[in-house]
Amino acid sequence: MIAMHFLQASVGWIRGLIAGQLGLAADALWVDLAIWLISALVILGVVQVGMLYATWLERKFLGRIQDRLGPNRVGIFGLLQPFADMVKMLTKEDITPAQAHRGVFNLGAILVVPPAIVVFAVVPVGIGLIATDLSVGFLFFISVASTAIIPIFMAGWGSRNKFAIIGAMRAVAQIVSYEIPQVLSVVGVLLLAGTLSTQGLTLAQGNGGAGDAIGYPGLWFVLIQPIAFVIFLLATTAEIERTPFDIPEAESEIIAGYHTEYSGLKFGLFQLSQYFMTIASAAMASILFFGGWLAPLPFLQRIGPLDLGWFWMGAKTIFFVLVFMWFRGTWPRLRSDQLMGFAWKVLVPLSLANLLMTGLIGYVTQSSTNLSGQPLLILLFFAVANALLLMATLWLIGWWRKNSERPRIRFEQAAAGELPPAEVAA
Amino acid sequence: MPNLDSILIHFSPELVLALGALVVLLYDIAIRGRDGRQAQLTLVALVLALGATFWLWGQPPLAIFEARGAAGGAVVRPGAFISDGYTHFFRLIGLLTTLLVVLSGMVYLRGRTPFKGEFYALLLCAVMAMNLMAGANDLIVVALAIEFLSITSYVLTAFLRSDPASIEAGLKYFLYGSVTSAAMLFGISLIYGVAGTTSLTPAYAPEAMRTVAGVLAEHDTIAVAGLESVLLPAIMLVLAGVGFKIALVPFHQWSPDAYEGAPTPVTAFLSVGPKAAGFAVLLRLMTRVFGDSGLMSGWMGMIGLIAILTMVLGNIAALTQSNVKRLMAYSSIAQAGYMLVGLAAYGQGQLAGLDPLGSTLLFLLAYIFTNLGAFAIIIAIDHAAGSSELEAFSGLMKRSPFLAIALAVFLFSLIGIPPLSGFVGKFAVFGSAVAAGQIPLAVIGVLTGVISVVYYFRILREAFFGQPVEGAGRLTVAPSLTFVVAVALVMTFAIGLAPGAFVDMANQAAALIAPAGEMLAGH
Amino acid sequence: MPAIPVWWYLMVATGLFSIGLYATLTRRNAVNVLMGVELMLNAVNLNAVALWRYASPTVSATVDGQSVQLLSTLDGQVFAIFVIALAAAEAAVGLALIIAVYRSRRTVELEQLDMLQG
Amino acid sequence: MSPLLLQQIAFMVLAAISLSGAWGVIRAHSVFVSALWLILSFVGVAGLYVMLEAGFLAVIQVLVYVGAISVLILFAIMLTEDVMGQAEPASQWPLAVLIVLPFFGMLAKAAFTADWQLSAGSVAPPEGASISAETAKLVTTAIPAEQGFRLPGQVVMLGRSLMTEHLLAFEVVAVVLLVALVGAIVIARD
Question: Hey, what domains does chain D have and what are their CATH numbers?
Answer without folding.
Answer: 1-85 (1.20.120.1200), 126-190 (no CATH)
